[in-house]
Write a structure and sequence with these properties.
This protein is mainly alpha-helical. About 60% of the residues lie in helices and about 5% in strands. Strand 3 and strand 4 form a beta hairpin. Helix 12 packs parallel to helix 16 and helix 17 runs antiparallel to helix 18.
Length: about 450
């Protein structure tokens, strides 16, 4: 297996686009105000409307339209945008980040405490939001959407009012999807690149510093993970500009010292394991059998407490008007299924990544190899979210006849991309060709843990 290097493409027009973003910052802010207004209207208003009646459509029912806008279009394709354009959504369109930044401009401006900077928050926030969203059926009901999305926005504003001054402290440390977006942005073929040599030889030593809202050290910026692609730093000291790169080049060239343990956990146990469990439980025959067996056991032993359904909607799904009510048993089974999927899939992937690292004789490589699974993680979450898109379109009479083939193609492309990234990473090792081949085989076995559950869900069940 030969060593591989990736060339860097040059695109002067991209640098010009970055300059346009910097010069027309007011237009971007104007767009953000418009997006914020639309976001608040679509999140808040449907929560106070009756649930859609039978026969309602996207074009004549605001609740259905908002559901399709958020969960059918917004979230799936925001993920796609991260993989294609980096975190442009965060820096140009995201209403939550924008309102948090504006709040911080009039807030207390206190320094960010150490507990907020803990590296595990993206992992904890993603797991908590994902599991809670399933318990309250956030994709189906506007009250749940207001609680989850609106609650996150309120928290973002609160953090902005207390910490930072004109900074996005919430986005950098506490946003539930910050870690996911950071992982996916590493694949993007465009990024803002800092030329360190040009920075250091800039003749003007006293230059007005860049007001980087997500708190990125621009001088030492080498990763697209935290950059919000807002364009404010474009042209700074003649060293920063929007540039092209080979897709996935950042992951392929990742050094062991740059691999973060919490990011790897978020990817393997969160974006892959937890997300699969969250999207899969409602379609899983295993879940149905387990729940029926548990219910029968409870009835046989006259233990009816867990079968009670008099539960507030903000704790477990409770919409009796449409016969959608969760019992305590439902809630426990959902949490149990998601947790089991996260642990089993995560352990499978982690175990085989460890085998791959040992095959190379480089234990530290385990974390670095985990990043090669980002394409599979991103496409998997997209497939899960887009299932609601398909459901809503089907209800409107739109049939996607090539859907199985399209899903299969996306999984195949993601698998090939992950294997290619692992191939390049392993190709940089000094191990023998036989050991490299063994490591690649072990990685492929790990990757199967992120593929087989989707195959089961879409082609077996």
């Amino acid at each position: 297996m030969p060593s591989c290097t990736l060339p860097t493409p040059r695109s002067p027009w991209l640098a010009q686009a970055g300059e346009l973003m910097r010069r027309h910052r007011r237009w971007i802010v104007g767009v953000q105000w418009v997006v914020l207004a639309a976001y608040l209207f679509l999140v808040v208003t449907p929560a106070f409307l009756p649930l859609p009646e039978s026969g309602a459509h996207l074009w004549n029912d605001l609740t259905l339209f908002a559901q399709f806008a958020f969960w059918g279009i917004w979230w799936p394709f925001v993920l796609v945008s991260m993989m294609l354009m980096g975190r442009v959504w965060c820096g140009v369109l995201c209403p939550e980040g924008f309102v948090s930044e504006q709040a911080s401009r009039i807030g207390l401006g206190r320094p960010v405490p150490r507990w907020i900077k803990w590296g595990g928050w993206p992992f904890v926030a993603f797991l908590g939001t994902t599991i809670y969203g399933q318990l309250v059926s956030v994709y189906e009901y506007p009250k749940a959407a207001l609680l989850v999305l609106g609650g996150s926005t309120v928290a973002a504003i609160a953090v902005g009012l207390v910490y930072g001054r004109g900074k996005r402290v919430w986005c950098r440390h506490l946003c539930p999807v910050n870690g996911v977006f950071g992982l996916l942005a590493r694949l993007a073929p465009v990024h803002f690149r800092t030329d360190r040599a040009a920075w250091d030889r800039h003749p003007v030593k006293k230059v007005i510093p860049i007001d980087c809202a997500p708190l990125v050290d621009i001088r030492r910026m080498e990763s697209a993970a935290q950059c919000h692609m807002c364009g404010r730093c474009s042209g700074h000291r003649g060293a920063v500009g929007l540039a092209a790169r080979v897709p996935g080049a950042e992951v392929a060239k990742l050094a062991p010292r740059d691999a973060d343990r919490w990011e790897a956990r978020l990817l393997v146990f969160g974006v892959i394991g937890t997300a699969i469990g969250a999207f899969q439980w409602s379609a899983s025959p295993w879940f149905v059998r387990a729940k029926l067996a548990a219910a029968e056991w409870l009835i046989e032993h006259d233990a009816f407490a867990l079968l009670g359904d008099d539960i507030p909607w903000w704790l477990l799904t409770h919409y009796s008007e449409v016969n959608d009510v969760f019992t305590w048993l439902d809630g426990l089974m959902i949490v149990g299924y998601i947790a089991t999927a996260a642990v089993v899939i995560g352990a499978w992937i982690s175990g085989w990544l460890r085998v791959a690292a040992r095959a190379l004789g480089e234990p530290a490589t385990q974390l670095r190899l985990a990043y090669a699974l980002i394409p599979l993680g991103g496409v998997g979450v997209f497939l899960g979210l887009s299932a609601l898109t398909v459901t809503l379109l089907t209800a409107e009479g739109v049939t996607l006849t090539q859907l199985p083939e399209l899903r299969g193609a996306l999984l195949a492309v993601a698998t090939a991309a992950s294997l290619a990234l692992a191939y390049v990473q392993i190709g940089r090792s000094a191990a023998s060709p036989l050991r490299r081949a063994a490591a690649l085989l072990a990685f492929a076995t790990a990757a199967a843990g992120a593929v087989v559950p989707w195959v089961m869900m879409y082609y077996v069940w």
